[in-house]
Every structure is written in structure tokens, then in C-alpha cells.
């Protein structure tokens, strides 16, 4: 399925380079072209302000801050940006907490192309 461009650009915020590269490969194969990446909150802030991503894939555990704090920041300052939380700790509490804070999706690591495709298709239905 071809995706609609309003989801772009897409920003990936994850401190693990291999995770960012893997997600970029998946998104590229799904037809996305404008994909940005950041390894921490400090480098993500200017990208959020200048590029205004439609979607942010956000790791919950980052070295400079907790992903849920970034989620709250994005929701407060960029209300049109959809945040998909990513974590290796997919406990029910973790998932519920991110939904309550306004995340539009949650992907457990390790993820695959099908999971990414599914969460993005769900986002298209609400945009």
C-alpha cells in the first residue's frame, strides 16, 4: 500500500544507531522518502521545530532523558505530530502509560516491517 505524504517527514529518535538504520530501511521500503534521525532529545528539538515531522518514532529509554518526557514535550509543542513509542520493555504498564500520555502507537523491540507497516496504516486512518 502506498502511504500518503502527510505522515512525512518522519523522525526517528533512538540512541542506538543500528535501530535507527534498521527503521530507516523499513520506512524506505514502505515508500517513505523524508526520514530524519536523532540520537537524543537535544538533537531532536531543532528537527521538531524546523522540519515539523508528521510522525516520530521515539525510544522510551534515552541517555539524556526519559522518552515519556519527550512525548509530553511533543504533545504540548507539536500537537499535529504523532508519536509512536518504541521499547524493548513492552510491559502492559509501559504501554498503558505511553497511551495515557498521548502516544498514537507502541512498537516493541525487536520490531519488524509488518509491525511498522501496521502502526503507520492505523495512523493514516486517524489523520
Automatic annotation (TrEMBL):
| Keywords from the named record | Phosphoprotein, Two-component regulatory system
The protein's superkingdom reads Bacteria
Recorded hits in InterPro entries, A to Z, give: Bact_response_regulator, CheY-like_superfamily, Sig_transdc_resp-reg_receiver
- Which positions fall inside the Response regulatory domain? 9-124
Pfam families for the chain? Response_reg (PF00072)
- Any one of the GO BP annotations: phosphorelay signal transduction system
Modified residues annotated as 4-aspartylphosphate in this record: 59
Can you say what this protein is called? Two-component system response regulator
What organism does this protein naturally occur in? Pseudoalteromonas aurantia
